[in-house]
Structures are given as structure tokens and as C-alpha cells.
From TrEMBL, chains A, B:
Protein's cellular compartments: Cytoplasm
Protein's recorded name: Aspartate--tRNA(Asp/Asn) ligase
GO molecular function: aspartate-tRNA ligase activity; aspartate-tRNA(Asn) ligase activity; ATP binding; nucleic acid binding
Species annotation: Thiomicrorhabdus xiamenensis
GO CC terms in record: cytoplasm
PROSITE patterns: AA_TRNA_LIGASE_II
Name of the gene: aspS
Length: 594, 594
């Protein structure tokens, strides 16, 4: 039904007859002639309908936006004044010889160039929303990324393999989506939170290098950047060290950026230990575009009278830091109040600051209500943070967690607010994660990565460790611009070590056997050393395209209440269907609006 | 942990030191020396452990099959008599200088070369089963096929796009897998039986050419070649006719066969109408490797006394056919009895036959108990089927359905039993399907393909048709060797025509609005003509690899009762989880062993 895409009809086709098909993007009547901008996947082209072609003209008069047409006509050059140098097809137009209306359109609920269309409306009429340039570009970018991924992995000996969607509850810790089994009454499948155990089993099966771009599922209350189903590039390798996995994945990342958006990283990605990231940035996914660091000053303030600083400075679980913000000394009281409110979100009880007016004047050149509490230390602090005239220095003093969360977030917010982002993409590998942390609620040890990650310790050491939270793991995360692109680890490939980790996590032998018996078995029958990684595809598209919302990188996403306004899923089912599953509704025990 | 894959250490590496890693495939002690066949994904290599390397030797003595090793050693040529020309690595061996046991193996539950291991055992220890050559090859073939698909579609302007897994019940007619929603009490997602409506919506969104290799789900009682989750190559295009879609998919098929197994089809795939397929082969997916056809003879037998033939011959819903089997005239009574039993499976009440001893002797040269019932017609029948000396001719007379099913299946069975398969792969496009058929149970019209397929009729004709079962559709199936590889159709792109089809199918306006309201809406806002197709990936792998079981082309399949012996999915869930979903168990109303 066409010889060319609309966006591909250029001046090389002048005097030729072409056939194009697409949507009426705009219709203008001008000087007795009708101009139609016809749109398809590849762009726009201008079609001219002259009144002397009476049948075409009368059809064209009835057209409205988004009607679908087929046009046959001759390509002619545009007259001098009407050339549009910003359009690929801007030098020509097509004189319609034949105009067929393939589909009339009713008036559409919103215009494609309309701003501020509500998200619910956009999702309900997603097939219109997706016609917009922005959404076309986002999904084309997504495809470009997956294609680059596949090419790289195909070329590097990885095999694309599928793992089950109907499977057993996996132990990522989030809530599973459950699927009742009809053939096994009272039993359920779970949708996978990741193919973690299957990919490990594929290594035990000898496939050596596996990849899959696959859907994962978590039934959690949704934050802004989460979806109930999300897509992951999942990777596992045998006989490779973490160093080799990181190099391979770094090569993959560079390939993706180059092929999908033409961006080239310079040199190797820097490495940083978890401890260094927390120390300097308060967070394990530092945004290195911002050239500011948290500086520890607890050692200087342990003995002062001022309890707000001295308390956390003396507490082994406390932390006191300074954050120098270059050139921001002219910040207003109102702005400072707003940042104080901001750090309050993270539990900080206030936000002390010092404005640096004139370093050469010593303490007199500083301006702050708090100087009086540590006059003897203040210049030493200023020197340690490298303060210069015109700076402001913020302070955080609280439990280490609150300080890291609050001042770490403040650092990023200041960086963005003050236009301090340097460079387009700043990657960093974060390594030497702790293996375990204490769950605040249950006071039990939990695995930070997951319980199949290999600790940097022997089985003996795991069983007899007196400070498990100090044990490091062979895990690694790739962070770009402060966002976690992916994470991975060397896995345990020894059943005794796996059992020791389960034991440390307080998982009884019986529970371990029940949930992971097949893994513990498999580890006994010849398991290669193996390591892997997973990249969050949705987030990667967001990073490469600088797209703030996860719902703008997925063709048919769910709302924050995990529903689809387009299809109205989830929906009611017949009682007969429930009956077949041997289920019935329980009377709601909580409010139905939850 | 290695410099080379085991299977890649060849004579070009002689005198070099290499490092390999893999599984102990075999260990032999011979003349005081230990020989290990070490196996990885790429093959086997022979490792020699000499007794003078005492530490290595004592490690090697403890090894059993499937232990995982790392070996560093020098590549040397094998001595004259020990060269194995059938192995890529058969001219060399590696003398172990360093032998590390990466993982000891307990005695494995079955040997890799063991025949007749039960399928339940194979699936329970799938990670061992998958190490077998056969399974490695099957899954590598599967990957080769998907890679060839992607390359071809990428090169032809198709975009890989994802559609939801958590969605609304789709209307393919099979039973849905349901997923209870926690955030929307008493509502359910359904897992997709196919992405049919989403891919149509993507065309309405202007993406023009879409593909996805995606999981689909059907909660049906499993036949031998079915799985609860299966994989489909899903395709949709805009502004293409069925002819263009078929050409594109034919190109895809040729590319797959060539790239995955090096097979080249000659010329274009033949086309056949549904009517012709039924007439000649009794089935809409004819196996053209078998050069036998059903021949209608009802016209000759309407007026004979013999009711068994005359009844169906006179009945408009009956059918009488002859099937000539060349050179099978020496078939024994016992064999014929077995084929009679075979057609009984399909409802045939008997299987009449005539053996052709001597055509030149006329009726006297034929041998059969039934000749006496139509002596005047028998020679005409023999001529019509082209009978020759030494043939046997079978007869079917019953309802058209029974005759088509029984004699169609008999044709294939005879072709296989008698070694009549000609050629390796015989493709055929089947076109001009009927749009509707009557459901035998409900006597309602149902869509043969699906209700979004475009009939070869106008909306007016659909609304006023007095014989809807005679209406053809714009559907097409690709059949290879009697197996349906894929099917597709031109879709309805007009809301009035879609509504007319729903009406003909007895779907009320209210039901249509409830289930497909979003589609009917979408059709009103500018819908391009579109058409598509889906290929069953699992079946395609079975065809290309000549693999009889679907469970041998899937890494982690389910059993026929839809369970996974490896992970023991489906499993029990905590009552708390059910409670969160506001569900409870219903007391089973049928036997629990169902």
C-alpha cells in the first residue's frame, strides 16, 4: 500500500510518482488548496490536494486529524518561500493524484501536541499517546538498546535461553504474584522476581554463558520508578571471576551507549568500594557528576560542649560530616530553610551551615549561628573541607544512617538545583559490599545482595564469624549518574557454603530443604564456579533517554495502583472460574479502597 | 579460569600451555596413568595425569564423573595408535601440570549416556539431563533459531516491543491462568494466551512493524505437544496485504532454516486453499512429503444398494473417498486389522479395501470382500484413483468429518509406516480458510482463526449473510511436514465491521463493550489496515531438529500434569498470603486427584 515511508520522500524522488500511507497529522486549507501533513513511523510529508481533482478534494475536505490515508501522487519541489529546512522532507511536496481514506477518525480525545494531558487519559488512550514523537522515540530507543545488548552478547558467546514464568516462589524478599493451579488443588505457581536460581542451574547444566531479556514480577506497593512487571537483562557465566564479569559488562554498557545513542565513554569505568561510597557520598550509588563530598569531622568535635555535634561524634553508630558547596554562600535564609525541610524527610533534625565570606579574616570571615559552639575547631574544619570565599558549608550530625541519607540526598539536590552536574554520563563500579546487614525490624541478619552471593570468607569462617555484618561479599553494582543500572555477584558453588549462609541467615535446615532443596542438591553434582549480573532495562532506557518516568519507557505500563486504564485490567472473573480453582472470596478484612 | 574451551584445543596448540575447565566426562586408569575426558560446552578434550606428578595424581584418583576441574598443562600430540579422527581434539592430549578440583561431585543419579532414564527423573535432575549432548544441541538449535529470526526481522524494519504479561483475559477461547490482584480486591489479572490485541494496538499506535518472541499461557489439559507456557514469535504489520505478509514470513522461514541448520528451500512455497487441502488430504495441515491423496467417489456410489457407502454418498454432510496406497498390495490381514483399529480412533466404523492384483484382468484382478456391493462401479473407481498392480486401495465412507479425520490420519500413518516420506521439509501455505464454523456443542458460530480476523466480505454482507459458514477469511497458515508452524490473518480495522462480526458470533453489544470496548474505541480513532502472524517457537525447534517431544526443546518444561519436578512448583503458600489476596480455599467439590 506504499512505495515509501512518508518521512523518506525527499528531493531525490522529484518527478517520480510515489505511494505513501499514514495518519493526517495536520490539515490546512490555504488559498483554495488543501495541505495535509501525512505522518508515519518515519516522519511527516506534505501532501497537496488541488481543487481541480474534484473527487480527492471533496474527500480531503471531510478529513480530520488522525484519519488514515493512502496517497498516490507526484513528488514536486516546493516553491522557494515554502521550503522547510528543518524537515527531512521539507524541500518537496506530493501532489495527490489518488486519495483513499483507509480509516476515518472520530474527533480524538486529545491532540498529539497537547501539553499536560493527564496520565490516566494518556494511558486509557495509549494507542493515541504512543503516536506522539516523544513516545515513538522512547520505544525506539528501548528497541535500540535491546538490539545492541543482543548483538554484543551474541558476539561474545552468550546463549539466549528461556526460563519459566510459572514457577516456584523465589527468595528475593519481595511479595510474589501467585497463580492458582487448577490441576494441583490448593497449590500455586509464583511469577519470578528474577530467574536467579534457573540461571544458576543453567550454569550447572554446562551452558557456560547465558543471557535473557526477561520479565520479572514484584507485587509491591509501587514507588514512582517501579512497575509490577519489569524487564531485566539477565546474565550468568561459568569459570569467570568478578573481574572478568565486570569487564564483559562494561564492554556491554559501552556498546549499548554507543550503538543506541552514539555516546562514547572515555577510558575504564572507575571502581569504588562500598565503604568509600558511603564515606564520600553517603550512599552506595553515588552520582559522580557532582563534585562535592561528605567530609568526616567527628574526630574534631568529640570533646566540645555542644551535644548536637559531640553526641554523634562520640557514638560509634553516629556520624558528623561537613559538605562544602562551592560558590553558594549567597544562598538566602529562605532557601536554607527549604533545604532544612528537605533533609527532614530523611530524619535530620536540622541543617547547620557556615557561610564563608573571607577566609583570610579567619573566624571573623565566617558567618553562622553555630560558630560559637566550636570556635576552636571551626578553622580546622574549614581547612579540611577546603573552604573558599563565597562557599557555604552544611553540617550533618546524627546516627550514621540519618547523616548518610540526609546529607547524601542534600548533595544530589544541591548539585541539581545549582546546576553543578558535570559531564553527561558518569559511571562507577561499586564493589566490596557487606554480605549481610541486620534487618531493623526483626534484628535478624539478611543478605544484602541475595543468599546465593559468595561471601569473601570460607565456609568455616561463615559458620564461626562473630561479626557477620563485617563480612564482605563478592558482589558488584554498576552505577551511572547515581542510578543503579545493574548488580551482580560471584555465586556460591559449594553446597556446604550455601548451607552455612542459610544457617547464618537463621533459615532452618528444614526450611532450606523445603525452599531450596533442589539447589542444595544441584550443588552436589558438579557445579562450576559461576557469576552473573542483571541490568534493569527500564531504568537503563530512562538513563540513556533522560526520561524521568518509567511509564514513558514501557508501551503498556500499569498505574501506581497496578492497574491498566486501557484494558481495565485487573478485572472481574466468573464465579465458575474461581470454582474451578477451588477458591472463594474471603470477606475483606480491611477497607476496600486499599 | 581458562585460556580455551575444552573442545577447541586442537593440534594448532601443540607445545603450548593451556588452561581448560570443565566436567569429568570419563576417567580411565590405564597402564598406571589416569586419562580424563574433560567436557565443556564446546566438547571434550583428553587430559593425561602422570603418576610422577604425585599431587595431581592423588587428586585424580579420587575423581568421579561430573567433578568440575581446572587443568593447566601442555598440549602434546597423541601417539599414533591413540588418535581419534572423530573428535575435534582427537589428535592431541593435555598433560596436566596443575589440577584443581573446583567442585567434587557425589555419585550422580544417572549417567549421561544412560538410555531409558525416566522422564520424571530427567526433569527432577534437569541440570544433569541438560548436560547431555542431545539436550545441549536442542537448546543451541533453539537459540540459533531465535537469533536468525531476530536478525531477519531487525534487517527488515521490524521493532522488538514488549507487551504485558499481567493483563486482561483474552479471547482465544482456552482457559486463562489467573493472577489475583492484591491492590484491587476480588479482581484478577490473566496471563496472555497471545499478545493479539496489544499488537493490534501497537499498529494503531503507528509502530508499523512489530515483533516479539514472547511467552503465552494456556491452562488446558495438556496433550503430548502442549505446555502451559509456550513461546511464540509474534508479528504484526501495517499497510501490508496478506500477500506481502506471506512473502515476508516465507523469507523469514527460509532464513531460519538456512542459518540454523543450513537447509535451503527450493523456490517459492506452494499455496493451497483450505478446500483443496481438505479435499485431497482430509486435513488443513497436509504433510506433502507423502504422495497420496484422498479421491472423492461419492458421485459413483449414490445409487448402489450398499447403504454403508450409498448413505454417506447421498448425504450432503457425508463423504466417500478412496485412498490408493502404491505397492502395498501385499499387506497382511493382520496389518489391515491394525489400520482398521487405527481409523476407529477417529470414529470410522470400519476400513474397506481392495487389493489390486492385475488391472488387466479387470474386476477379476481385484481382491476384496466389498467388490460385490458395487461391481458396476469398481473399475471406474480403480481408474479414477490410478490403481496399478500391487496397490491396495482403502475406502472411507461416513460423515465428512469422520472420513477426513480417519482417512487423513491413515494417509499420514501409512506414509510413515511404509517409508513413503519424500524430501526433508515440505512447506505449504494454506489460504482461504472459512471465517466461521458451527460449534458442535452449542450450535453457535465461532471464529475459526479469531474474531479479529477480516472476513472476505463487507460489513453489510456480514450482517446479512444467510450462510456464514461459507464465508471465507483473510487468514493464512504455514504448514511444514504436516505441522502448523504458524498462522496469521489480515485483521479487521473498522469498528463497524468488528461489531458486525461480534454480532454474528452471538456476542451481545454489552458483552462486546465489556470485553473489547477498548478495541472498538481504538478502531474509531484512526486505525491502519494491518495484518500479522505468529510462529510457535517450540514446534519450530521440534521440526528443524526432528525432535519428537516438546519437553526436549525447553530448558525447564512442565510435566503433563503441569508441574515442575525440579522445583516442585506449584507449591503450597502461607495462609497469610491468601489472606492478603482476600481468598480462601473452597472445599474441593471434585476428586482431589483430578
Amino acid at each position: 500500500m506504499r512505495t515509501h515511508y512518508c518521512g523518506q520522500v525527499t528531493e531525490t524522488l522529484i518527478d517520480q510518482t510515489v505511494q505513501v500511507a499514514g495518519w493526517v497529522h495536520r490539515r490546512r486549507d490555504h488559498g483554495g488548496v488543501i495541505f495535509i501533513d501525512l505522518r508515519d513511523r518515519e516522519g511527516l510529508v506534505q501532501v497537496v490536494v488541488n481543487p481541480d481533482a474534484a473527487e480527492n478534494f471533496s474527500k480531503a475536505e471531510k478529513l480530520r486529524a488522525e484519519c488514515v490515508l493512502s496517497i498516490t501522487g507526484k513528488v514536486i519541489p516546493r516553491t522557494e518561500g515554502t521550503i522547510n529546512p528543518n524537515m527531512a522532507t521539507g524541500k518537496i511536496e506530493i501532489v495527490a493524484e489518488k486519495l483513499d481514506v483507509l480509516s476515518m477518525a472520530e474527533p480524538i480525545p486529545f491532540q498529539l501536541d497537547e501539553k499536560n494531558v493527564g496520565e490516566e487519559t494518556r494511558l486509557k488512550y495509549r494507542y493515541i499517546d504512543l503516536r506522539r514523537d516523544e513516545m515513538q522515540n522512547n520505544l525506539r530507543l528501548r528497541y535500540g538498546i535491546t538490539r545492541a545488548m543482543r548483538r554484543y552478547l551474541d558476539d561474545n558467546g552468550f546463549m539466549d535461553m528461556e526460563t519459566p514464568i510459572l514457577t516456584k516462589s523465589t527468595p528475593e524478599g519481595a511479595r510474589d504474584y501467585l497463580v492458582p493451579s487448577r490441576t494441583h488443588p490448593n497449590k500455586f505457581f509464583a511469577l519470578p522476581q528474577s530467574p536467579q536460581l534457573f540461571k544458576q542451574l543453567l550454569m550447572m547444566s554446562g551452558f557456560d554463558r547465558y543471557y535473557q531479556i526477561t520479565r520479572c514480577f514484584r507485587d509491591e506497593d509501587l514507588r514512582a520508578d517501579r512497575q509490577p512487571e519489569f524487564t531485566q537483562l539477565d546474565i550468568e557465566t561459568s569459570f569467570m571471576s568478578e573481574e572478568q564479569v565486570m569487564q564483559t559488562m562494561e564492554g556491554l554498557t559501552k556498546t549499548i551507549f554507543k550503538e543506541a545513542i552514539g555516546y562514547e565513554f572515555e577510558g575504564d569505568f572507575p571502581r569504588m568500594t562500598y565503604a568509600e561510597a558511603i564515606e564520600k557520598y553517603g550512599i552506595d550509588r553515588p552520582d559522580l557528576r557532582i563534585d562535592m563530598q561528605l567530609v568526616d569531622i567527628a574526630d574534631l568535635l568529640q570533646d566540645i560542649e555542644f551535644k548536637v555535634f559531640a553526641g554523634p561524634a562520640k557514638d560509634p553508630k553516629g556520624r558528623v560530616v561537613a559538605l562544602r558547596v562551592p560558590g553558594a554562600g549567597s544562598m538566602s535564609r529562605k532557601e536554607i530553610d527549604e533545604y532544612t525541610k528537605f533533609v527532614g524527610i530523611y530524619g535530620a533534625k536540622g541543617l547547620a551551615y557556615i557561610k564563608v565570606n573571607d577566609m583570610s579574616a579567619g573566624i571573623d570571615g565566617l558567618q553562622s549561628p553555630i560558630i560559637k559552639f566550636f570556635p576552636d575547631q571551626v578553622m580546622q574544619i574549614m581547612e579540611r573541607v577546603g573552604a573558599q570565599d563565597g562557599d557555604i558549608v552544611f553540617f550533618g550530625a546524627d546516627s550514621a544512617k540519618v547523616v548518610n541519607d540526609a546529607i547524601g540526598a542534600l548533595r544530589v539536590k544541591l548539585g541539581e538545583d545549582l546546576g553543578m552536574l558535570e559531564g553527561r554520563f558518569k559511571p562507577v563500579w561499586v564493589v566490596d559490599f557487606p554480605m549481610f546487614e541486620e534487618d531493623e525490624e526483626t534484628a535478624r541478619m539478611v543478605a544484602i545482595h541475595h543468599p546465593f552471593t559468595q561471601p569473601k570468607a570460607t565456609t568455616e569462617e561463615i559458620l564461626n564469624h562473630d561479626a557477620p555484618h563485617q563480612m564482605l561479599s563478592r558482589a558488584y553494582d554498576l552505577v551511572i549518574n547515581g542510578l543503579e543500572v545493574g548488580g551482580g555477584s560471584v555465586r556460591i558453588h559449594d553446597s556446604k557454603m550455601q548451607a552455612a549462609v542459610f544457617k547464618l541467615l537463621g533459615i532452618s535446615d528444614e526450611e532450606a530443604q523445603d525452599k531450596f532443596g533442589f539447589l542444595l542438591d544441584a550443588l552436589k553434582y558438579g557445579c562450576p564456579p559461576h557469576a552473573g549480573m542483571a541490568f534493569g532495562l527500564d531504568r537503563l532506557v530512562m538513563i540513556l533517554g533522560d526520561i524521568p518516568s518509567i511509564r514513558d519507557v514501557i508501551a503498556f505500563p500499569k498505574t501506581q495502583s497496578a492497574a491498566c486504564p486501557l484494558t481495565e485490567a485487573p478485572g472481574m472473573v466468573d464465579n465458575a472460574q474461581l470454582q474451578e480453582l477451588l477458591l472463594r472470596f474471603r470477606k475483606p478484612v480491611r477497607s476496600a479502597d486499599k
